[in-house]
Amino acid sequence: MDGMRQTVILKEEKEVYSPRTYVDLKADFAFKRMFGQPDGQSVLVAFLNALLGADAETKITSASILNTDLEREHEGDKKAVLDLLARTNRGDLAHVEIQVTGNPHLAKRQLYYWSRIYAKQMEKGRPYSDLRRTISILISNVDVLPQTQRYHSVFGLYERQEHFPLTDVIELHVIELQKLLKRAAKSEADPWTEPEIRWLLLLGAVQGGEVQTKLMEKLEAIAMSGDIELLEAFGRWEDMSRDPKVWAKYEMWHKAMMDDAAYKAEMELLLAERASLKSETETLKSETETLKSETESLKSEAESLKSETESLKSEAESLKTENEQMHARLLEMGRTLLLNGMDASEVARLTGLSPEEL
pTM for this one? Predict the structure, then answer.
């Protein structure tokens, strides 16, 4: 692969690229150029067989590329453009979609695409028996299914209790590249023994515009050791990576991805700040309610103390009046005793009054 040692010069940008620079195959146009061209049927067939785990009985031997535009059947329908759609020699429809950035509705979108492809087969006058198995494969560069650590999940229509399939015409694959890359980094996924792993790692060999050198070298070694289709894929990849027009398009795509990532990061930051402010507002609101409650409690206590003070004051006035009345009665009694001839000192002792008061 001597061509890989050459530099690529973009006439439009006047930039020189290193010999080990490749376009990211996750770019939709690059993916289509690799797998969606009539002259690359052998690469597509090998790719699909690897992803579908085909055995001798189910092995795909040929595949024809179909129109990827899902035109509107009704005025209000949403137009969809697929990354890749092919019909196999068995008559099955295979749809492959590449997703680079996160989207919370990927599962619903995948099911929508599957339904459009499946329904498109039916034409007036044709029996339902003509409807063929439709396979939708989502390859995502971001995690989609937090419920599992598996990088390849397969879904169908199954009975809930006994888990037997209703039909085999629906088959949905979700492949998460980052989970595979982490496993490969830990030597838990071997591209030498598993064709699926080597083809998926080919898609993950460029991350953020940077070629993963060690991974690339391993895949090249596998290709040179006898994987003819993978070797052909490397040749196609090299050719498009040396094409100035492809590079110009790739640079625009990469910039758009970077801008999108920056925008999403900024939005996430703004949303986080908004959530933080909302939390602080709720906390302040809660603290205000607490202070209000404490103020009401203190006010109630103050009213209670005021009421107790008034009660004590009233009791004091009452005691004062009783004391004055008692003093008057004692004074009257003392004077009466004096008039009856009792000694003044004895009267003072009995009444508790001083001689001066008597």
Answer: 0.71
